[in-house]
UniProtKB/TrEMBL annotation:
PROSITE patterns: GNAT (PS51186). One of its GO terms (molecular function) is acyltransferase activity, transferring groups other than amino-acyl groups. It holds the Pfam family Acetyltransf_1. Gene3D superfamilies: 3.40.630.30. Residues 10-134 form the N-acetyltransferase domain. It comes from Richelia sinica FACHB-800. The lineage of its organism: Bacteria, Bacillati, Cyanobacteriota, Cyanophyceae, Nostocales. This is GCN5-related N-acetyltransferase. Transmembrane segments: none annotated.
Length: 134
């Protein structure tokens, strides 16, 4: 998937094992902590990992952003398995250029195509539901 942004083109594609080091670095830098990079590694090893919804954003051949979803269970009288969005990270040098938005939009399109019923996210409403959102 290509997203044209002004002069720059962002490619959104599924992650592969060659991206793992870059993804780890981006998460560590973006969150100023190794915890989210470790979470990504744990999810990848689990049966909750969704390869088709683990995406990277590439600009000029460089991985600059990453998004990952995993299945989580909402447990009550019934159990519903839904998508959890986390973590989402953009390299600090590439933030505020629309890359996070592109990763969210592309991944939600895939989730929608897969007829996933619900996505849960904990995050800043300024990013996930900005005033300019339709
Ligand atoms: C949050 C994050 C993924 C956003 O990625 P990004 O590529 O910078 O986001 P975009 O450029 O698509 O931002 C679109 C809009 O969202 C809002 N926004 C972006 N980053 C934001 C932030 N950190 N906090 C609040 N609002 C934010 C702004 O309104 C922005 O529009 P503007 O630049 O015209 O003001 C990125 O800042 C990041 O990696 N942060 C550290 C990790 C993190 O917090 N991840 C999310 C966990 S819920």
């Amino acid at each position: 998937m290509h997203i044209q942004q002004d002069q720059d083109s962002i490619i959104i594609r599924c992650e592969n094992s060659l991206d793992y080091l870059d993804i780890s670095e981006i998460n560590t830098l973006a969150f100023s902590s190794p915890n989210e990079a470790k979470l990504v590694e744990l999810i990848r090893k689990s049966d909750r990992y969704l390869s088709e919804l683990s995406l990277v954003a590439e600009r000029d051949g460089k991985v600059v952003g990453h998004i990952l979803y995993s299945y989580i269970d909402l447990v009550g009288q019934e159990t519903f398995t839904v998508l959890g969005l986390a973590p989402l990270a953009v390299h600090p040098q590439f933030q505020r250029q629309g890359i996070g938005t592109a990763l969210v939009k592309s991944s939600l399109e895939i989730a929608n195509d897969q007829q996933e019923a619900l996505v849960i996210v904990l995050g800043d409403p300024q990013f996930y539901n900005p005033p300019s959102a339709p």
